[in-house]
Amino acid sequence: MAIADPDSEPRSMLKLTLASASVVWYAVLWSIGIVGCVAARKRYRLRPRSPLASAPATAVPGVSIVRPLKGLDTNLYENLESTFTQEYANYEIFFCVDDEDDQALTVVRDLMAKYPSVAAHIAIRNGVTAGVNPKVNNLMSAYHQAAHDILWVLDSNVMVDPGTLARAVDILNPPSSASHPPRRRIGVVHHVPYAWVTKHTLGSRVEEAFLNTNHAKMYIAINTVAVDSCVVGKSCLYRKSDLERVDGSLRPIPNADAGGCQPGERGLAAFGRFLAEDNMIASALWHELGLRHDLSCDVAKNAVGNMSLVDYIARRIRWVRVRKRMVLAATLIEPLTESVLVGCLASLGLRYLLGIPPWLFLPVHFLVWLFIDMDVFASLAGHPVPSSMRWQFLSAWAARELMALPIWSMAIVGSEVEWRGKRYEVMQNGEVRRASDGRSGVTGWFLRWRRKDTDYYEPLETRE
């Protein structure tokens, strides 16, 4: 008679638990992905014209558009021109630079001469420093000069459609007669990034595949469920009067509904200590004032220039390290949201529970995952991936999926990042301080090989 192994029952129970957990998590992740895919279809495949687009200036709220600039970014002329051609009657534009010698000013002045009827201004920093974040420092002059309460902060490498501003204001400032008013006031209107490639390098292609599929799918899903703030600040509208009440501490203001505010330093200057100031501003408005966010049906068209694969990896490392200090739990489980790892774990679980062989499950898993991602791309772009570029796109998509876990593994063990040629140490809650230029470890060795003069932007020739 065989003697039972006393350890076999606990071991079997552990295997059963792990197998069940992998399958349950797989189902949860698929639910999130389907939410993102369906929401993208509903939101982005039809973009109606806003009534504000044809309303007179006296009938619409004023908006101050603020664009931080530094040098000649990819597609700069067209990006900035898209701000001048907004179908909206009451707005001004501020182009923010560090000094009078910035090369971007040549493009700005050309556009100001081309569109003399638009209230456009140049805001020069002149050494004003609010913190270590160079973007916040760049914006401070325009922030103080802005004539309107509604601010639209729009990155220099972003182009938008003419109806974008009107549709965003519709959401931020809904009419009193709206049929479905939000339960809580909307504090931020933002736009999902949509990458388009101007230089067909490997890194640019991988960035395009990432932003237009998996990133967009999860970003839209999280904002549809709306359990917490999740904002990428390529293009954001919010009210200056709201920002002047918060400080980035994320502590709720007890009398927020009655107009209360945080003590001490508030407003944009208070966010100069963060590297991801856009995300922190959105989080502060959510947690401190109890406001909510909403996505517009427009996209922020992110021009991607001559990005090498090393540039792409360095960029992903940077933002994983920033997120780790801001939302640790979400960053730690990030590998479990990627197709390769979650597919492998689910295949092991299904083999143990149901006897389904991995060789049968995994091809179906990747094909269906790819189908969902391609559908999200089609929703954002308004068309499927062009047939002439399909195999290049699929190759970039596969490369991105395979690199996700190695990149995360490199990023999760460090705290230093590089941005625009300067090094920072990311501290608690996403605050940063300048770091020394010394690099150590595997990641430091790797980053020594990336270009130091650009951050995946490529200069354009200025137009005469």
Layout of strands and helices, then pairs:
Layout: H1 8-44, E1 63-68, H2 76-84, E2 91-97, H3 104-114, E3 119-124, H4 134-145, E4 150-154, E5 158-159, H5 164-172, E6 186-197, H6 202-225, E7 235-239, H7 240-243, H8 277-287, E8 292-304, H9 309-326, H10 328-332, H11 339-354, H12 358-381, H13 390-412, E9 416-419, E10 422-426, E11 432-434, H14 441-447
Question: What would the keywords be for this entry?
Answer:
14 helices, single chain, 15% strand, eight-stranded mixed β-sheet, globular, 464 residues
State the gist of this model:
Helices cover 45% and strands 15% of the residues. With 464 residues, the chain is an alpha/beta fold.
Kindly describe this structure.
The protein has 464 residues and is an alpha/beta fold. It contains 14 helices and eleven strands. The protein has helices at residues 8-44, 76-84, 104-114, 134-145, 164-172, 202-225, 240-243, 277-287, 309-326, 328-332, 339-354, 358-381, 390-412, 441-447; strands at 63-68, 91-97, 119-124, 150-154, 158-159, 186-197, 235-239, 292-304, 416-419, 422-426, 432-434. The strands form two sheets. An eight-stranded mixed beta sheet has the order 3-2-1-4-7-6-8-5, with helices on both faces. Strands 9-10-11 form a three-stranded antiparallel beta sheet, covered by helices on one side. A hairpin with a 2-residue loop joins strand 9 (416-419) and strand 10. Helix 9 packs across helix 13 (390-412). It is globular. The termini are far apart. Mean pLDDT is 90; it is low at 451-464.
